[in-house]
Design brief:
The chain is mainly alpha-helical. The protein has helices at 2-19, 24-40, 45-67, 73-112, 124-132, 141-158.
Length: 159
Amino acid sequence: MLAGAAALLLRLALGDLRHRRLRNRLIVWYAGLCPVALLTSGASGSQWLQHGLVAVVGFLVLLALFAVHAMGGGDVKLGTAVLAWAGSANVANVLLVISVSGLIVALMGLLFNARCLRRIFARGWRRRMRRALRVQRGVPYGVALAVGGLFVMPGYLTS
């Protein structure tokens, strides 16, 4: 089950890199695996409540970012699902991982699109990477959210 969730996150990240779209169907599948993971880990009722509360608060914060055009709708949905997986015990660590990985993706976009470096990245895989990280298309924040989701996974193996 965790391998399936990880595969969904990787697919979402690649889709966001290529098309700047996060497919709703994949997000729903990923979010739907969260209650299954909680069930199989033997989470108590209070843990279920904490995961739900983190998801609701996260959704409201992300919705405010969407309202000011700082984030796309797919990012809001995926971010809510990642925060639901994280729960209150891991929310601070996950937010830190998401922030740092988002910064790295943004800096890579700036680097690959720097005018002085365009000749270096003009061929082959480097050209495809430059196109995927084009700053004018926005930051593919689904990649950072997927990294945060992957960060949460080992916690379900130990519980």
